[in-house]
Write a structure and sequence with these properties.
Length: 197
Amino acid sequence: MINSALAGGPACSVRAVEKLSGVHVDHFVQLDFDGFASMVNALGGVNVCLNEPMADRDAKLDLPAGKQQLDGKNALALARTRHAVGDGSDIGRLGHQQVVMSSIISRARDAGVLTRPDRLFKFLNALTSSITVDEGISSIPKLTGLAKRAKAVPDSKIRFITMPNGAAPSDPNRVVKTADADTIFAAIAKDREVPVE
């Protein structure tokens, strides 16, 4: 299970992702739960629209249906909920994690965080105590440079994709990648547009 690699630290996770995907990972950012909430709060919250109310006592989640702005605590609860979505698995909650991440990216762009140095510095400074990064981006100037490169990517080119998967032959409660996943990873490795819907 790829989750178990994190117990060995970020380097183990990077190696596990590289082995699974065949894609070289240039940089990584590891963000803890407090850092995630701080990031959302530093952006002034994020906007989401829920089709139905969501409640999960374990995740400390209790949100109404409809459009709303979430603070860091509620955005984290939405990203972490297992019992309010699907079958309670990691894969079941990916959709809401992707909604929250998409909202964070959208908010960062709308608030000018990536385009205004004063806002970017304040944002990155708020995160530095809660993130672990590789040496290639281990300072505020280096993170700022990465953010500047990220702002050049148009919204239409940012996609969230769940790795195509199927039940593991040895355990139906586990998943393995499918041939479609290999197609996606091959495109990423060659820096090409992902050829799937």
